[in-house]
Amino acid sequence: MRFIAPAAFCLVAACTTGSSLPEASIGIAPVLTSEEARDEYTFARPQEARVTHLALDLDLDFTRQSVGGTARLNIAAAPGVQQIILDSSGLQIANITAPDGAALAFEIGDTVEGKGEPVTVKIGDARRITIRYTAAPQADALQWLAPEQTAGGEHPYVFSQGQAILNRSWIPTQDSPGIRQTWEARITAPAPLDVVMSGIRQGEPEDVGQGRRAFSFAMDKPVAPYLIALAAGHIDFRALGPRTGVWSEPETLERAAAELVDTEAMIDAAEALYGPYRWGRYDMIVLPPSFPYGGMENPTLTFLTPTFIAGDRSLTGLVAHELAHSWSGNLVTYASWRDGWLNEGVTSYIESRISEVVFGARRAAQERALAFAGVEGAVEERGADAPETALRTPAALDPFATDSSITYDKGALFLHTVESIVGRERFDAWLRSWFDRHAFQPATSAMFLADMRQNLIGDDAALEQRLQLDAWVYGTGIPDNVARPDPAAFAQVDAASRAYAAGRTLDAQAWAGWSTAERMRFMQNLPDALSDAELATLDRTLGLSGTGNSEVKFLWLQTALENRYDPAVPQAEAFLAGVGRNKFVEPLFDALVKQGDWGMPIARRIYAATRPLYHSYTRGRVDLLLGAES
Ligand SMILES: [Zn+2]
Predict the structure, then answer these.
(1) In contact, 193 and 183? CB cutoff 8 Å
(2) Distance 169 CA to ligand 1 centre (A)
(3) Is 408 an active-site residue?
(4) Mean pLDDT of 14-27
(5) Is 113 annotated as catalytic?
């Protein structure tokens, strides 16, 4: 690994003058310059000039559905460098000035599909610049909700989703995970809306007149810019523990808080394994249903879909996952999107370990078995030698288009395999030390493997051979040393699946006693072809239509649509209108599209009504399925 030599940069306190943060708290993370760390999805040339700190002062305009104001950037540049290149996606820049107020020339380049536009600023000797700008209405990262799209129905709402490369649509900076930045923000919104961000709130909201209030935030640790996030709406806060709490609309706060009671225990479990939680607070916000993901690990404030609320805490593995990102992803971050598994695979492994401590070995074993089945399914579908089944993904693969069964589940499987070979105690000590050695820094697959070789394997050639590290990270399919999940994890359920396949026997009593993972396993192993009568019996006997568990409901609807089961169409329509989580939305539309003459008209009819309810990410995915004209 090669870092830019600190001496070549302005890395001393002078870089950060003008910041309202205490100078000593601002760290400047290194940027990797190796070819394998190169991010193809940024226009920035960080080895020449890079952003080290960002200060936003923005107004939320709910009428125009846009944000505007200023962004002040602190810049570190190699000696003699006179320009910096930033990322933009539709930003309307009014002017850019030096600290003395002098206007700086800038040029916005041509739009590159899927990447946005470069903004080249002639900074001369200036190492701090202020950009006055407005984001385009409907900027991709931001979702603006009308009051009727919220639970309360009275106030508008906005939230952002930056990952992968959407933050350039509302923040003019270098939008690349390897270019870590500290940041601060002052955000103005109409009362009574509250604003929250993925940084620590500074003081009380300030009344700025005309019915508006300003909220201030700071993140004094350098983070990947996709982790800058905000939400604003009519929201309340409920403390859960000394350093944890939840925000949500008042209407969902009670249910959300009840579902999240294990959060402190999860942090304790993670800290015991991987060292201190370094971000101060761990709060969460439960967003309106259109949030496109299950969760987003925005530091100090995890964003969550309301679909994790099942009433019995059976889907809170999602919280364990987002919390795990406080180590893998947020503390140590991939430098390029090709190493997505370094974030998501390592996180899924840690999620499994937290789950084992907090919910017990049985639940963790079942979740692992489900994930393993997903990896096997993905490899079977794509082919064992398909390049996209490698953990380090092919260069051309769109960062939005990676397969979660590979990035998340094969990545976790790799670490479970290493753990099983070297032993848990030894592996845990190494993984913890990896986080310590690379805290607040970017990393690559090659760095991960080199560190493992140096600090875990040493000169044990036999161990090196048994681990097959390169086959796991750069090879395709599933290496033959894989640690398979415990075959007993689903023994009872799989017996029930066989009984159903053989004679359509169903045991409602057994189903009632099953965990969510067991129910999901059963649903996933149903025979491919089912008649209307069989589907009606399944629904009636197992209470599938009426379930409040979004994962089980999704699998039921998917099965029903794949079998052209008309009675389920109104349920699918209601579900798709009420949920924007892409994990559910895209596969259900896909199931309809694959049913051609029967499904396509239904898909088009439903999408015409639900498309405006989805975030740009979900919209983009479904647009691809249904054709751009949708
Ligand atoms: Zn994740």
Answers:
(1) no
(2) 22
(3) yes
(4) 37
(5) no
